[in-house]
Amino acid sequence: MSRPKPNEKPDIQDATVEGKGERTFDLSLSALVSGRDALDREFEEKTSILSISAREVHVDLTSPIQPGSKLKLSLLVPQTLYLERRLQLALSGTVAKVRVESPLSAKRAVLIRLDRRFRIDLN
């Protein structure tokens, strides 16, 4: 069995990162994020998650968000060979970090620390 070279990209089976005793999955799932923005206005934005673990999720948002904001996320988990039906996963959490990607872009990289409670609905 050959070992991958250090500079080779991992295949899909190795697309997780382990740290602090948990796994982070780098994947793209459709998400609907809602809450109150930095101007205290309600917002709802469609996006995709960039990565998720049991404790946090990374998303890109254009809405002006600030750390400490409470957000709700609704993720659509598609049907797969192992998953017979699509799932709707409802999560909530608190914004831990916000990083503006570039001064010319409205996109912000947002790290959300997840609450322990969640809901799964069958679609």
Description:
Strands 2-3-4-7-6-5 form a six-stranded antiparallel β-barrel. Mean pLDDT is 80; it is low at 1-18. A hairpin with a 3-residue loop joins strand 3 and strand 4 (56-61). With 123 residues, the chain is an all-beta fold. It has one domain: Thrombin, subunit H, CATH 2.40.10.220. It is globular, with a radius of gyration of 16 Å. It has strands spanning 16-19, 22-36, 42-52, 56-61, 70-77, 87-100, 108-122.
CATH topology: Thrombin, subunit H
Instruction: Work out the radius of gyration.
Output: 16 Å
- The CATH architecture category equals Beta Barrel
Computed structural class: mainly beta
In short:
This protein has 123 residues and is mainly β.
Topology:
Blueprint: E1 16-19, E2 22-36, E3 42-52, E4 56-61, E5 70-77, E6 87-100, E7 108-122
Antiparallel strand pairs: 1-2, 2-3, 2-5, 3-4, 4-7, 5-6, 6-7
Fill in the keyword field for this structure:
Thrombin, subunit H, six-stranded antiparallel β-barrel, globular, 123 residues, mainly beta, single chain
